[in-house]
Amino acid sequence: MSESAGSGTALLRRLRAPSAPPQEACALCGARLGSEHRHLADIERRALACCCGACAMLFDRPGAAGGRFRSLPSRVLVDPDHHVDAAVWAALGIPVGTAFVLRDAAQDRVVLFYPSPAGATESQADDDAWRTLRQATRLAGLLEPDVEALLLRRDGDRVDCYLVPVDACYELVGRMRLHWHGFDGGSVARSELDAFFGRLAERSDHLAARESA
């Protein structure tokens, strides 16, 4: 084999080899980020941005830097004494077994989302449905606009009720979109859903315990 042919073959191998994933960087200062890092909610675009710990601290307070960005909190709370039942589920109009609710401060409304093969499907929760949910769980009254969500999962007669940072919901939507097959998601998607809520249960604090601390 000629030298030029050998060089061409080596180049072809390099082109075919998968490239390393890009290093994530802070959206504000450009600092390199590890796999575990914080997020900001971009209120205007209703999107998330990765950030370093130092930049996240700048936006811990509502209204900082004009209010466009808010740091996501880290708390995960579970309400074991909630009263979210089939009637509440029907009032919310949730057609699937998992959904999350957040408050949009700019538009002064409560928005309901649920995972689907196409991503997060959105619908607006009316005032009566939101009032019913607030009566069913104290977590609804603790919900921080734009940065937290009330995450609900119904499995038969059981309903799990969590207060989570909104990036946890984005993660769930991404996992469901990636693994969804067929009409009902399939066994792989259900396993991913079980694993996700298992991890959530491990990192959560009980609402009653947090209030008495």
Mean of all residue-level pLDDT scores: 81
Helices and strands: which structural class?
alpha+beta
Distance between the termini: 75 Å
Listing every helix as H and every strand as E from the N terminus to the C terminus, the arrangement reads HEEHEEHEEEHHEEHHEH
Oligomer kind = single chain
Number of contiguous helices? 8
Poorly predicted runs of 5 or more residues? 11-15
User: How much strand?
Assistant: 25-35%
| Helical residue percent band | 25-40%
The tally of beta strands, per DSSP, is 10
Shape: globular
Please give the order of strands in the largest beta sheet: 7-6-5-8-9-4-10
What is the CA-based Rg, rounded? 21 Å
**Major pleated sheet:** 7 strands, mixed
Counted up, domains total: 2
Give a verbal description of the structure.
The protein is of the alpha+beta class. The protein has 2 domains: 1-72, no CATH class; 77-212, no CATH class. The protein is 37% helix and 25% strand. The chain has 8 helices and 10 strands. The strands form 2 sheets. Strands 7-6-5-8-9-4-10 form a 7-stranded mixed sheet. Strands 2-1-3 form a 3-stranded antiparallel sheet. A hairpin with a 4-residue loop joins strand 5 (98-104) and strand 6. Helix 6 packs antiparallel against helix 7 (186-203). Residues 11-15 have low confidence and may be disordered.
